[in-house]
Amino acid sequence: MAGRERPDNEALGHTAVAMGLLNAEQVQEALGHDDAAAAGAVFVARGLLTQAQVDLVVAAWHFQQARATERRFGRQVVEHGWASAEQVARLLQLQAKAFSQSHKLVPLADLLQHQGLLTPEQRDTLANEQQPAPTAPDGFSLVISTDRLRASITPGDGPRPTVEAVELALRRKGITFGIDQNAIAALCSGGTPAGRPVVVAAGIPTKPGRDAALEYLFDTQPLAAGRQKDDGTIDFRDRGELPQVSAGMPLARKTPPVKGEPGRDIFGRVLGARKPQDRRFLIGNGAALDSDQLTVVATTDGSPSLSATGRIAVFSEYRVEGDVDFHTGHVEFHGHVIVTGTIRNGFRVTCGQLTAGEAEGAMITAQGDVLVHGGIINAHVRSEGTVTAKYLHNTRVEALGDVHVVREVVDSQVTCSGAFHGEHCTVLNARVSAKQGIMARNVGSEASSPCHLVFGIDEGVRNELLALDAERSGRREAAAAAAARLVANAQKREQLEHAIGALAQQQDEAMVRSRALQQRGGGGLDEVQAAIKALTGQLDALFAEQKQLAGDSLAAQTEEADAQAAIARLDSEIEALREWSEAHPGRAELKVDGTLHAGTLLEAPHVETRTSGERKHVWLCAREVTTDEGSEWRLMPKS
């Protein structure tokens, strides 16, 4: 940011209002008592802002001041043809998002370089265009590159500088590393043309590392949703062939990350290399990580599958000829379940993949894809893959992949982290949320209640993360309860051992008395033997309690180990799901080829609006636009 001057109280107050920290009346009242030495102190003194909030407002003010310069820089990049206007706009959006999270400005030039859209030389060219370096009285100008890896001297038309003058200029700037004495000598002797910059010091750039990569050794998308016929319907039976594997066959390989090498700038400072990103396998049923920790192999024969979130599994097949009903009961199978009939009301199917004729009032949970040839009515479907059906009526669908519906979605809720494909579908009185965008034929009608469409927002992953986090919390509570039982049992065991020791001593003493009485004869023997019998009974009871306690402790150890293993698995799933979500940014687009009816609520990142009239052939996307008041998000026609 240019300068780093501090805003006055009026500018700071306006910024605080825009951020929602103050209202206009509070600012005006505070400005009427502006007797503080430092900007912002008047708001702190009157209890309107904390110092931390003042610092945040100042940072936001500097960011807004810098945005004009950053946009100007972006326009120069586009004018030179080094990046497109869309690429610059996307990086400016990323810059704003980064500031909202860290309250620090990431220069647009850094983002462009990171994306490979701008070279250091091009960056220096733009810097020189923005701030031409004047020729100093010494007869030359010294320019340091923005990445601090090069220092260049441009000689003027007059006499050449001496080597001593150049070295003095470098020392004054603090340049100590990578000085090129040969280049300085050539510059000072006149061996280089006047007006042409000469690099007199060069640092060592960081050597980038390499991110980890995953390679899948099977066709990860072998089946289409079905072949579309000329009349617009889909033949769900024409899907292609599923690949098959045998136990022991490799399914995927990982190339480990490679660390980068640090560099050094011309001031002698070490430049750290970016830490390479690692990637992890997410493994489901029928697959396991090999001993090399880099290969996933099949543990059973069947059809390999890759879910939307990257989970590798191998599914064997289980067929239900007819309906899932009272004759079959609930179906739970780790592989591919094929139901030739209907999944009836009140019955559950939990499986790897599912192919069914219809579903009515069913609960379906699948690790992979769900394909229903007919419709789904009054049902709840959860899938880590793609869900495909002819129609949805009064149904809730949650998928991490795409959702394909051929005919209609009525009185239903659809949430997916992929795209909603309803190119020939009518959506009525429904809520559809799709991270990768929504495509439909018609949305709403004059008679139905308005629809709610959410696009570009990952509600599916958010809901899945909430569910996983809730399960993890439950496992943590179970682990803590088991650990507490172990502590309590240890205390009880110690008490029992003391009690057993005391009784055993009493029993030994009674046995000694009994033997003495038997040898001498006389009375009292019956009483002693009765006491021994009572002590033996008490000891037997304590030994039984000790055995029961040992069994409970063993069970608690097992429960704690199982809970800790589940926590580790859930931690891995949560991290993998977050990585997958971040690696697949949303697409805030809505395409309606037919009619988008009035009253439809449209929601995208940073923007929400309701349609006011009937519209035909709509294709919208969320975009940040610049206005006189700053920037704002709008739903704009797709160009």
Please outline what is shown here.
This protein is an alpha/beta fold. It has a 20-stranded mixed beta sheet that branches.
- List segments where confidence is low: pLDDT < 50 over at least 5 consecutive residues: 131-137
Oligomerization category of the chains in this entry: single chain
What is the overall shape?
extended
- Strand count: 34
State the distance separating the first and last CA atoms: 33 Å
Structural class: alpha/beta
Main beta sheet: strand number and arrangement?
A: 20 strands, mixed
> In percent, how much strand structure appears in the residues?
25-35%
Number of helices: 11
Average pLDDT works out at 85
- Helix-residue proportion: 25-40%
Number of domains: 4
Q: What is the C-alpha radius of gyration, as a whole number of Å? A: 36 Å
Describe the structure.
With 639 residues, the chain is α/β, with parallel strands linked by helices. The protein has four domains: 9-122, no CATH class; 133-202, no CATH class; 314-461 and 597-612, no CATH class; 472-583, Helix Hairpins (Orthogonal Bundle), CATH 1.10.287. Helix content is 36%, strand content 28%. It has eleven helices and 34 strands. The strands form six sheets. It has a 20-stranded mixed beta sheet that branches. A four-stranded antiparallel beta sheet has the order 4-7-12-11, with no helix packed on it. α1 (9-18) packs across α4 (51-79) and α4 (51-79) packs antiparallel against α5. The chain is extended, with a radius of gyration of 36 Å. Residues 131-137 have low confidence and may be disordered.
